[in-house]
Amino acid sequence: MAGRRTLYDKIIDRHKVMSINHVRGPGESLLLYVDRTVLNEYTSPQAFSGLRGAGRGVWRPETALGVIDHVNSTAPVRDNRSADRGAARQMAYFIENGREFGIEIYDVLHPLQGIEHVVLPDIGWVTPGLVIAAGDSHTTTYGAFGSVGFGIGTSDIEHLLATQCLVYHRLKTMRAGVDGLLAPGVTAKDLIMALIRRIGASGASGHALEFTGEAISAMGVEERMTICNMAVECGARVALVEPDAKVRTYMAGRPRSIAPHHLDRAAALWADLRSDADARFDAEVRLDAATVAPMVTWGTSPDQAATIDGHVPDPGSLRGAEASAARQAIDYMGLVPGMALADIRVDRAFIGSCTNARLSDLRDAARVLKGRKVADGVRAIVSPGSSTVRREAEAEGLDRIFIAAGFEWRQSGCSMCLAMNDDVLAPGERCASSTNRNFEGRQGSGGRTHLMSPAMVAAAAVRGRLADVRDFGAVR
Amino acid sequence: MTVFEVVDGIAAAMPAANIDTDVIMPKVFLKGIDRSGLAAGLFHDLRFDDQGRPRPDFVLNRPDHAGARFLLVGPNFGCGSSREHAVWGLRQFGIRALIGTSFAGIFADNAANNGLLLVSLAPDRLMPLMAAAEAGPLSLEIDLTDQHIRYPGGDLHFEVDERLRHSLMSGLDRIGETLTHAERIRAFERDYLGERPWLAER
Fold first, then answer.
1. Residue B56 and residue B146 in one domain
2. What is the distance, to the nearest Å, from the Cα of residue A323 to the centroid of all Cα atoms in its chain?
3. Are B164 and B190 found together in one domain?
4. DSSP element (H, E) containing B92
5. How is A31-77 classified by DSSP, letter by letter?
6. What is the pLDDT of residue B153?
7. pLDDT digits (tens, 9 = 90+) for A64-102
8. The domain that contains B66 carries what CATH number?
9. Could you tell me if B104 and B117 lie in one domain?
10. Binning pLDDT at 50, 70 and 90, where does residue B202 land?
């Protein structure tokens, strides 16, 4: 076994307190030690109530951090009150739980507040080789640092808080090898959307998905976060990238970075955080990065996507379940089979979310928007991934570019990615969105979502319809 | 937690693939701080039109499917958001088990934590059941003691993880069970954090 293990299995092995069913390999049930968690106000309340009801405490409160992100307003002027009674109650209860159980909470007014999966890397709290479980499916983001991150439900949040452990089922492993390099104007978002289209919404179900290859090595850490974040949309429970020098550079100098005097010792442990050369994966998929083009979704599942020069499919040309799914999606989306994607008009443009609202994402979009205007009739908003990102963007003058183009420059939160606050699509409204899910009703009941990269959202906002960012010149 | 041994009732067919947790429990029902009131939200936008009127063609609104206890579902059921509210809503609506071909990972863990049985069958084994349910209300019995689904004209065996089966049949306190290993966890922690002192600091 030793000497031919995957990165995933190495991390799980080091966090195994004990085997429960004594199976070897995938399907092993084990007690898994969890290094850190991040809590939000909407999936955690019942976990705290459960602890109270059972008279239990939190095992190591310093390993948890709470961030308000899902229900808060992103109005330009911060206000920690909420007109929504449910949201107000969730925020108040969250703060009360933090106080009672000794867990630090970043409330709406905290200078480091933001979307949980943007905040943790922001503050330097994600380091290689950790296990991070949290009550949000996009916890897979932390794979960009070579850490095992995965989403859990509220009952397991309670379990984790009470015991620092989870009863865990070891996953199968899958490798996505990405050869070559992405072409100019093509982003990490396009790559992961192309993979999801290729293997389907459950293509990596039951697997830990490791990304390897030249394109991944060439990417910055934030691009890797986009890929690992969205890997959950093809069913991957865990996503991973081997940590390299870029990760070390990214972590340095942040508020909770590892103290310099520990770094050599930490780095010695990180040196082994890679899949062995002869490690065997349960599944493999290969992609050629050079052939990836800017992607948009046309349907209501992330795998219902095409390149921007493509067309809405004709369900008659598809088979069985795929045909009926396409028919239902096209009907919900108010589209016509065979129409060019570049002819689809949009009402709204949204740049935000834990997938694509980091500084590099805002720079990509601003490059397209500089000197241009949002089309008449399009309402465009940008919600930076965190208050830190917002400040950094303002220091570079990105806010002025967005505002001059006609975007609303908002505060941070999950916002219109899932529309739990007041950033909601009206029924029938169509949105170009840098988010991760185009499910029916995701951005508002009856709302229609087209997923794409932040630069592609900017292009769509300017054109008033879905557009190819490569026609705008200003691409990397 | 209600224990699951032998349960019978009507099975409703929802064969579409990739039914996500946003559809199972829309966001407007996620603003609580307890688990209550979620039956009203279950499949809300499929059950009700934009005026709040029941859609008569939706399977769970049909009078002959009233009180359905099982859903026969398409592949990758429960994908998307981690919201456990989806499982709480199914349970509060009266659903005791889902029979499908595959379930999303977080959803499956949430189901296990709430006594909702998920039965995975190969597509060719699910097909006759699905066809029968789509033709009209199908009564069936799930016997977890011997792992059989029985229905008029059929009887099939299913596999389920033995520990999960035991937990569904006895309603174990999972946290309490882990805490019986507290000494093992402490010992692990001393060794692990000793090697990584930076993780022991705030």
1. yes
2. 29
3. no
4. helix B85-93
5. EEE--BEEE-TTTSHHHHHHHHHHT---S-GGGEEEE--SSS---SS
6. 85
7. 999 999 999 999 999 888 889 999 999 999 999 999 999
8. 3.20.19.10
9. yes
10. low
The partner residue sitting opposite A158, judged by closest CB among B163, B175, B182, is B175
The pLDDT assigned to A413 comes to 98
Q: How many CB pairs under 8 A join A and B?
A: 169
Q: Do B82 and A152 touch (CB under 8 A)?
A: yes
In 3D, which of A204, A176, A162 has the Cα closest to residue A34? A162
Same domain, B133 and B189: no
On the question of pLDDT at A1 being above 80, the answer is: no
- Per-residue pLDDT, A391: 98
The two three-digit tokens of residue B198, written as one number: 């930076």
pLDDT confidence band for A476 (50 / 70 / 90): low
In chain B, residues with a C-beta closer than 8 Å to the C-beta of A56 are 175
Interchain pair B174, A262: CB under 8 A: no
Task: Supply the DSSP string of A9-28, one letter for each residue.
Answer: HHHHHHTEEEESS---STT-
- The residue count of chain A comes to 476
* Chain B residues near residue A445 by CB distance under 8 angstroms: 26, 45, 50
For residue B107, being part of any structural domain is answered with yes
Closest residue in B to A35 (Cα) is B199
**Measured distance CA(A199)–CA(A249) in Å, rounded:** 33
Record: contact A163-B178, CB cut-off 8 A? yes
Location of structure tokens 């979307």: A115
Of A45, A237, A301, which is closest to B33 when you measure between CB atoms? A45
Which residue segment(s) compose the domain that B165 sits in?
Answer: 6-171
User: Which chain A residues touch B80 with a CB distance below 8 Å?
Assistant: 137, 437, 439
CATH 3.40.50.2000 is the classification of domain A294-472: no
> Chain A: residue nearest B75 by CA?
A202
Residue A164 φ/ψ region, left for φ over 0, alpha for ψ in the -120 to 50 degree band, beta for the rest: left
Q: Which residue of A has its CA nearest to B22?
A: A442
On whether both B142 and B107 belong to a single domain, the answer is yes
Kindly give the interhelix angle for A398-405 and A387-396, rounded to the nearest 10 degrees.
90
What one-character DSSP code corresponds to residue B120?
E
Supply the pLDDT for residue B1. 66
Does the distance separating the beta carbons of B80 and A137 come in below 8 Å?
yes
In a domain, B1, yes or no: no
Min Cα separation A75/chain B (Å): 19
CA of B41 to nearest chain A CA: how many angstroms apart?
13
Nearest to B109 among A156, A201, A321 (CB): A156
> Based on the structure, what is the number of domains in chain B?
2
On whether both B23 and B111 belong to a single domain, the answer is yes
**What confidence score (pLDDT) does residue A264 get?**
96
Nearest CB neighbour to B82, from listed A84, A137, A324? A137
Q: Mean pLDDT over residues A274-284, rounded?
A: 97
Q: How far is A392 from chain B (nearest CA, A)?
A: 25
Tell me if B115 is assigned to some domain: yes
Q: What is the pLDDT of residue B171?
A: 86
The predicted-structure confidence for B138-172, as pLDDT tens digits, reads as follows 999 999 999 999 999 899 999 999 999 999 999 87
- Give the nearest partner residue to B31 out of A46, A87, A202, using CB atoms: A87
What is the pLDDT at residue A2?
Answer: 54
| Top CATH class, A7-286 | alpha beta
